[in-house]
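Data deposition worksheet. Section B asks for the primary sequence of the deposited chain exactly as it was used as input, without tags or linkers unless they were present during the calculation. Section C holds the resulting structure in token form. Section D is free text for depositor observations; keep each observation to a single sentence. Incomplete worksheets are returned to the depositor.
Section A, Depositor: J.P.
Section B:
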Amino acid sequence: MSYLSVIAAGVAAWIFGAIWYSVFAKPWMSDSGVPLGEDGTPINRTNPLPYILSIIAMILVAGMMRHSFATAGIDTAGKAILGGLGIGLFFISPWITINNGYSARPFRLTLIDGGYATFGCAIIGLVLVLI
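Section C:
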């Protein structure tokens, strides 16, 4: 596992997020409370900052997962997918649940965001061991 694998894994998870949130765009926009323009799309959709921050965040997650996987001896696709699913489901999703719960967001938003965290981490794990 190298720096290239970390960047590739972060980018893969980011691309997956673009697909995931395209599929769940309407319920996500409704439940997140993101301000919408007259055309029904988020008013900040042309602002590059959220996209830049999100890809940096995915690379940071991939970097820490690389470290954790190396320390744990995770070196096969099966172990990496399982490890990624575990990180997303049992580390990140509970944190999302807390944030959404205290901010009185609909539980469906937690499922959308937690689903991305869970499957995105599985993708990160897989890419880390394949590259």
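Section D:
DSSP finds five helices and no strands in the chain.
The mean pLDDT is 96.
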